[in-house]
Amino acid sequence: AAELGVKTLTVYSFSTENWNRPKYEVDMLMQLLEAYLKNKKEMLVKEGVRLNTIGDTDRLPEPVKKALAETMQATKNGDQIDLVLALNYGGRDEIRRAFMKMGQAEKEGKLDWNQVTEETISSYLDTATWKDPELFIRPSGEQRVSNFLIWQISYSEIYVTDVLWPDFSPKNLLEAGIDYQKRNRRYGG
């Protein structure tokens, strides 16, 4: 992605709904995440990746939180691409949490409900640091967004591929990028 000029790559890594999977599957996914973070940390640093997360990471197992913190610290100076892992993330939950933060800010006198704009709401979302995605890639041929970045993708171009996420390769990313370049983004105009 960095070679293609992508500045931010957000990957749906574990959704709020994924906790409903069988416990052994959740445990295995968490172990895989921890192992990946540990095994790829040096490569991420070398490639200039800055690792970030969105979602409510408090619920993640302690070893995963520790590996995340260590990898994020090691990659904090990455200047080629921001890799954002959506962990214990759901778009509706993100919006709920944003409104909770806004309510607290209003209570503290830091926010006037009568002055709330779309930009105000965006500033309270997990993704406030980054621009809204230009391209939303949906692997596995599914025709739904699956509660992912539902506020942010309102004007994103959508690319659907039948390729399953574990098989999604750099070639597939290039194909999505070429398809995107052919689009005429009108932002509702």
Give a verbal description of the structure.
- Strands 1-3-2 form a 3-stranded parallel β-sheet, sandwiched between helices. A two-stranded parallel sheet has the order 4-5.
- Strand 2, helix 2 (62-74) and strand 3 (81-89) form a beta-alpha-beta unit.
- The protein is of the alpha/beta class and 189 residues long.
- It is globular, with a radius of gyration of 18 Å.
- The chain has 5 helices and 5 strands, in the order βαβαβααββα.
- The relative contact order is 0.14.
Which band does the percent of strand residues land in? 15-25%
Overall strand count: 5
What is the overall pLDDT average?
96
> How would you describe the oligomerization state of the chains in this entry?
single chain
Strand order of the largest sheet: 1-3-2
Q: Note poorly predicted spans.
A: none
Main beta sheet: strand number and arrangement?
Answer: 3 strands, parallel
Choose one word for the global shape: globular
Given the helix and strand composition, which structural class is it? alpha/beta
**Proportion of residues in helical segments:** 25-40%
How many distinct helices? 5
Order of helices and strands: EHEHEHHEEH
Radius of gyration: 18 Å
Distance between the termini: 29 Å
